[in-house]
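Input record (Table S2, row 279):
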Amino acid sequence: MTPANFDFHCHSVVSDGLLPPHEVARRAAANGVDLWALTDHDDIGGLDEARAVAEEVGMGYVTGVEISIEWKGVPIHIVGLGFDDKDPALRGGLDELRIGRLERARRMGDALAAIGIPGAYEGALCFATNPSLISRAHFARYLVSIGIARDVSSVFQHYLTPGKPGYVDHRWATLEEAIGWITAAGGVPVVAHPGRYKMSGAEMRHFLDDFKELGGQGVEVTCGSHSPDHVMHFARLARHYAFHASRGSDFHGPVESYVDLGKLPQLPEDLKPIWRMIL
Ligand code: AMP
Ligand code: MN
Ligand code: MN
Ligand code: MN
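Output record (manganese (II) ion complex):
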């Protein structure tokens, strides 16, 4: 199979997306996606449903997850693709990450209470379909619902980003752990939306050196949060490092996303698409 429209990055209510996995799958297919992965944050609980619907509608499917890590103090996301979703080490690692999220969420609730916004932890939980996966996005939706700000992005800007009162430091997985879990489960590690990280060019190259040395194999070149300049820049880095290139909308829901499923520009033609490592 040579896919014409693959989308390897999106979310369901199993993490901080707004639609259940079956609706994300149907929307991807309706938008013309022919090879698809659901990549919820730190949880693979939606994959059985995702696979079943993909099979039903005749859409190509690979397993996916977006793992939260920290590298030299910078929070980074690593997408894993095409792994064995029954692998116990991967599942155990994700279990630990979700436990850490709950503890972080309680501290976020305390930090917001300290500036006069009580009950945010409980409020955010009400917005989380999966109570074991609580994200800043759920806090943001709760804070909008009580009128703290007009939309999710202004909540992030004023409350939930580094230096702002609802932001707390957190220890995520390490780069080595995330790559180890994915590769031991037979999967392919990919750097998610590299254009989003607050890093200098030299830091990004240092990070990509480490990523490659530890077994990383791909970078998202075309993705929902990349400008045309980002696409050119990360295409160059993909060539330099001989990484395969991925393409993913990072769709979270009809209102909160930059781009819809399958509606991304194509990858630059000379790059090696990541699906070649999986199919
Ligand atoms: P967390 O993994 O809990 O720290 O939450 C990160 C998630 O919040 C991301 O995956 C996005 O879905 C969302 N997010 C992060 N920054 C923003 C922003 N500036 N505006 C809207 N959503 C954001
Ligand atoms: Mn998200
Ligand atoms: Mn991400
Ligand atoms: Mn994502």
